[in-house]
Amino acid sequence: xxxxxxxxxxxxxxxxxxxxxxxxxxxxxxxxxxxxxxxxxxxxxxxxxxxxxxxxxxxxxxxxxxxxxxxxxxxxxxxxxxxxxxxxxxxxxxxxxxxxxxxxxxxxxxxxxxxxxxxxxxxxxxxxxxxxxxxxxxxxxxxxxxxxxxxxxxxxxxxxxxxxxxxxxxxxxxxxxxxxxxxxxxxxxxxxxxxxxxxxxxxxxxxxxxxxxxxxxxxxxxxxxxxxxxxxxxxxxxxxxxxxxxxxxxxxxxxxxxxxxxxxxxxxxxxxxxxxxxxxxxxxxxxxxxxxxxxxxxxxxxxxxxxxxxxxxxxxxxxxxxxxxxxxxxxxxxxxxxxxxxxxxxxxxxxxxxxxxxxxxxxxxxxxxxxxxxxxxxxxxxxxxxxxxxxxxxxxxxxxxxxxxxxxxxxxxxxxxxxxxxxxxxxxxxxxxxxxxxxxxxxxxxxxxxxxxxxxxxxxxxxxxxxxxxxxxxxxxxxxxxxxxxxxxxxxxxxxxxxxxxxxxxxxxxxxxxxxxxxxxxxxxxxxxxxxxxxxxxxxxxxxxxxxxxxxxxxxxxxxxxxxxxxxxxxxxxxxxxxxxxxxxxxxxxxxxxxxxxxxxxxxxxxxxxxxxxxxxxxxxxxxxxxxxxxxxxxxxxxxxxxxxxxxxxxxxxxxxxxxxx
Amino acid sequence: xxxxxxxxxxxxxxxxxxxxxxxxxxxxxxxxxxxxxxxxxxxxxxxxxxxxxxxxxxxxxxxxxxxxxxxxxxxxxxxxxxxxxxxxxxxxxxxxxxxxxxxxxxxxxxxxxxxxxxxxxxxxxxxxxxxxxxxxxxxxxxxxxxxxxxxxxxxxxxxxxxxxxxxxxxxxxxxxxxxxxxxxxxxxxxxxxxxxxxxxxxxxxxxxxxxxxxxxxxxxxxxxxxxxxxxxxxxxxxxxxxxxxxxxxxxxxxxxxxxxxxxxxxxxxxxxxxxxxxxxxxxxxxxxxxxxxxxxxxxxxxxxxxxxxxxxxxxxxxxxxx
Lengths: 662, 322
Fold this sequence. Notes:
The complex is a heterodimer. Chain A folds into 3 domains: 4-154, no CATH class; 212-504, no CATH class; 581-652, no CATH class. Chain A is built from 22 helices and 18 strands. Chain A has helices at residues 8-24, 29-48, 55-73, 79-93, 100-116, 124-152, 163-187, 345-350, 360-372, 376-389, 405-413, 418-431, 479-483, 485-490, 492-496, 506-527, 531-540, 548-574, 581-595, 606-616, 621-636, 643-652, and strands at 212-213, 227-234, 244-250, 252-253, 258-259, 280-286, 293-294, 296-297, 307-309, 315-317, 327-333, 393-394, 415-416, 436-443, 446-448, 453-457, 461-469, 473-477. The longest helix of chain A has 29 residues, at 124-152. Chain A is elongated. Mean pLDDT of chain A is 80; it is low at 194-207. Chain B has helices at residues 16-33, 38-49, 64-74, 90-94, 128-140, 175-178, 192-200, 204-210, 217-228, 234-248, 259-275, 283-295, 308-318, and strands at residues 54-57, 79-83, 95-100, 105-110, 117-121, 142-145, 148-151, 157-162, 183-185.
């Protein structure tokens, strides 16, 4: 009938497709097909004027869809399965979407589907996704309504009605909801854990450091630009050489990979740096990663709630308190702290443990060096010098290593990244009888001047070694720095001075950095708005220490008041404000008559309105009729009557309804 | 009510004010004969003033002839009635040439169509050929017999009737022919009170015989010209266009009103406004003539109930008046 761009259907289908996009990416292929085909069918049906499918076929399809869902997910109770059900059924609803009513349902459900996606991710991209779906749904709804109402009034929609106006209309409606949404956001009672009770392993697998380290294992992280955490420092920023964010510490080596000793995790740290004297104070905001580590610079002086500090300075969350949502903690660090001037025999043994019959060539080399340089510090320098002088290369794509990984690395390939160097160095130290361990974590970070915080990405993952020297305690040695000092100074990728992928340009990174500020702001103000912040905020306006129940009550009151305030606005929004003052007053006049029970509508001519008013309001018959006559003459005749007087007359007219018994 | 028709006898010169008064009197006079049908009478007059022709669809015996005769009488028109039958030939309507032996030439004998007001009773009973002769005359305002064109009287008004129930042996008029009729009305049965009045009152034939002409053809022509002076404002035109568009959007009718029908609607509305003694068209005028205009022109879309007229009334309640 009209141009396709003004037809609601293409927009509706596009909105459904957009809304199901995140779900589609996690669904098995048959279900993806099942979701996409109704959209295709409905589009073709519109183009080819197909008739709706028979209801039996639709019912059969519904059950087939259900069966496929059950087959794919096992049951329909999980979050993924439930959202999958919603997605598939919403797409199938398109099959019978031939009337305004159905279209309206579909458009509204896309909004619902969109909101369910926040169960899986609450990051900034989801905000843009949400905005996109909302725009699509609003546009579709506006077009549906326009189409429907124009059709019903028997008028063809004017061709000039642009999409921008439709979208504007939808946005204005949305604007009405903003105060309400804000009220709900600010006042809704908040618990420590999300309402829907996230099971611990529910988040889709995320990358990050793991509990074991095989040289090459964190390679994938270097390509991952997603933020690991952000730190905002009070006062000055530490120099880059001090930005070692301590994570999992590895003690056990089985010849190939490193892991931390099971019992080592149980050891609690006894002596801590003095928190008050620590030079670095900062607040860390961690992205959810399903893990238990908190990251801190050497050496952490505070232990956040529900966290413990192990002997080797790992900050570990307690069981069942993995970081499943954005997590903030305050931290202090004292780099000058002396870690374990004395080493117990048990730990010493653990730090010297090496599997037999691995890496014979390295063992031979180390034993030779040890004989030549008995001094520990001198030996360390010699090993580092070896890394420096021999043609070792820093590369993110090292050759594969087999059984004697250290031997092969040290003598044959001589190419690798931090893990290889840290692992090799630690093994060599242990062979030399110096207690050593591998520390993984992050190194460096990108300082965002605009937001004044340090962003540490997954790609900043790093591994280094720690050796224990008598009287000095555990000392950090970063063998990677000996090979590629720029790795520590500039980060792993700049150290390579090459692009990671085809789209890695400096300006792209700039954009990403800008985006990160937004991301952090979103995290800080929206996702991170927890019970404590809520209480702080309410404290500002003098409401303190509210129980959940009181909050709910307050919210209900605010919503109620808000609704009352919005209703008149809403009533006016439907009607465009008439430019012509006379016509505007006339319409209000009709509106008031209708409110008083006179059967009038916009479809009545002035004389009909006058007659209806006269018969229903006997006491005002004369006045009403006169107003109607005058209006008719002024609007349709060329009589130059007193326009202002008529406007005033219409304005002042109030229907006096007869009351019985008075 | 007796009107002072004696002192307003036709005068060659007349001013508009006087013509209006006469028109009002004429309406009142017809309403006196045809009881309880003021709207239909007003539509008939509007049709007359808008230089159109009227189609009355109704069962026999509800006053179709009475209306035609009364109209003819008060307007001072020469009245002819033709009962259409299946064996009626075109020549029976338009007339024929007869050879005059004494003068050695053909002489044209005008048929009943050469009247100011023609009542074509049961127009759908005649064969299409005969129908088209009448309808052609209605459209062209002239008839051509054997190569000679004869002009019809200037205010020329046809009232055709159809019985909507008895369709056996009829030739229904095609849409294009129906379009020649400006308005179509249905008289319907009188309400009980008027029926009582009718039963008790004088014979209609006597009343008709006593009626006096209030207008004449000259005045009628002037009145028709007066209607053209009726002002049409922009909002009203917008309303009219909205209505036209509404008939065309395939929600109400199978196909909408043509632009010619739009012009007809405007002409009717003007005439109606003039009868209502206004010098501008009000939305009510459009609404009053709209169902009569749609009635015989449009077909209700499939799946919808009710007649075209009911559909038109429903449509009118949906389109807002600007």
